[in-house]
């Protein structure tokens, strides 16, 4: 199978709407830059960025059907907010449809929406890149997070989780418990770092 960036871009352009495709390209090069900064593999970060939302432009009904087809367990929260499933399904699509074998890339896609405690470097890079890529414009603290991400990835992660939780609560959306667990982990880590100073 062809595995060039251009080929991947064409594959994504075919399944994403224009807005999502633009976002995807932004995540891809932002992730590659963060990888260069933090010593992860830029090619893996670029690939994870390109494919991370490959299951995003599906109706919720179709998304649930696809998850059932692939035997992906669906939690009560995901039933309430099936959009969350695009991360799990995206990882499966990346492997099954797009032939990605690299586990690090697949797990980055798997966890890009909620994050999780003790993320791998690539998971964290994708999580942060997804939030701050250039076409994002609505989140508060975006400018600060964009600068911070290149100075202190853990602090940027913590801030994103905090702002995400506030946003979900404000909008009264269904919250995945993994987001809260991730926030607990990264905020504890920040507290410990502060105490050591
Ligand atoms: Fe996503
Ligand atoms: Fe995304």
Tell me about this structure.
The chain has 197 residues and is mainly α. Helices cover 69% and strands 0% of the residues. It is built from 11 helices and no strands. The chain has helices at residues 5-15, 18-38, 42-51, 60-69, 76-80, 85-96, 103-110, 121-132, 142-149, 153-170, 177-196. The longest helix has 21 residues, at 18-38.
Short note summarizing the structure:
This protein is an all-alpha fold and 197 residues long. The chain has eleven helices and no strands. The N and C termini lie far apart (51 Å).
Bound small molecules, deduplicated: fe (iii) ion
Helices and strands, in order, run as: HHHHHHHHHHH
Low-confidence sequence ranges: none
Provide a count of the helices.
11
Structural class: mainly alpha
Mean residue pLDDT? 97
- Rg: 16 Å
Global geometry: globular
Tell me roughly what share of residues is in helical segments.
Answer: 55-70%
How many E-type strands? 0
Straight-line N-to-C gap: 51 Å
Task: Profile the largest sheet.
Answer: none
Beta content: under 5%
Task: Give the helix/strand layout.
Elements: H1 5-15, H2 18-38, H3 42-51, H4 60-69, H5 76-80, H6 85-96, H7 103-110, H8 121-132, H9 142-149, H10 153-170, H11 177-196
Bound molecules: fe (iii) ion (FE) (2 copies).
Provide key terms for this protein:
mainly alpha; binds fe (iii) ion; 69% helix; 197 residues; globular
């Amino acid at each position: 199978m062809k595995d060039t960036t251009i080929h991947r871009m064409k594959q994504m352009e075919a399944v994403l709407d224009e807005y999502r495709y633009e976002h995807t390209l932004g995540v891809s090069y932002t992730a590659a830059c963060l990888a260069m900064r933090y010593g992860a593999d830029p090619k893996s970060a670029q690939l994870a960025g390109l494919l991370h939302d490959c299951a995003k432009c599906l109706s919720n009904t179709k998304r649930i059907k696809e998850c059932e087809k692939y035997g992906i367990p669906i939690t009560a929260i995901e039933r309430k907010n099936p959009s969350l499933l695009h991360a799990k399904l995206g990882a499966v699509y990346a492997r099954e449809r797009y032939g990605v074998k690299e586990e690090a890339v697949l797990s980055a896609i798997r966890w890009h929406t909620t994050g999780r405690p003790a993320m791998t470097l690539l998971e964290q890079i994708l999580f942060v890149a997804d939030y701050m890529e250039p076409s994002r414009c609505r989140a508060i603290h975006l400018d600060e997070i964009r600068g911070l991400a290149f100075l202190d990835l853990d602090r940027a992660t913590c801030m994103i989780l905090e702002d995400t939780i506030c946003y979900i609560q404000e909008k009264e959306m269904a919250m995945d418990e993994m987001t809260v667990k991730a926030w607990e982990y990264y905020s504890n880590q920040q507290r410990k770092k502060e105490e050591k100073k």
